[in-house]
Fold this sequence. Notes:
Residues 16-179 form the Phage-Barnase-EndoU-ColicinE5/D-RelE like nuclease domain. Pfam families: PBECR4. This is Phage-Barnase-EndoU-ColicinE5/D-RelE like nuclease 4 domain-containing protein. InterPro entries: PBECR4. The protein is of the alpha+beta class. The chain has one domain. The chain is built from 6 helices and 7 strands; from the N terminus they run E-E-H-H-H-H-H-H-E-E-E-E-E. It has a 7-stranded antiparallel β-sheet with strand order 2-1-7-3-4-5-6. Helix 4 runs antiparallel to helix 5.
Amino acid sequence: MNPYIYQFEIVDESGEKPVKRTIELRFDQENFCHLFGLESIVRRHVRNTGPYKGQAGWDTIKNGIIDFSDLKVKNKGGFTDNKARFVFFYLVPRLFESPKGLLFDPDKVSVNTYVDCELLFYDQFQKTYVHIGIMEDINLGYYIPKTFLIEKMTKQSDGQKYIKRQQTIHVTKISKEEIEII
């Protein structure tokens, strides 16, 4: 997803007149570790979490310093809790081909949540709901991913915890353009 700029047309038909806008979404390298929850995996087990977040985290992964075995050694339980993110991340590019979308309101989720995003793109793959929550970064002038959620469908759960009671929007991918990384 990096080094691409994705453009989507968003149509909100919840009001008297449809509201249409175009958004630009980028997956900057410094957001990668946050999507996988790397800092939360190691937080209680290392003094300095700097190498597990932001651009420094991306660089340590790229240089082979951080890998799955490192995360398992630091916190096997935390790694296991986040394992679904690693397993299903490959589906995110497919999600962007024709995503379903919501205006996300955390107060409408049936359980307490720390999810903080403006829009939630999602789709169902392999009896699992894959979600990417995005929010506009005013300083950067474009949208960035804020959260990556996986909800499996089971006998006890329909996997729609973050979808139910939310305002649906129409999302259409306009373009995917490669950008130069400096």
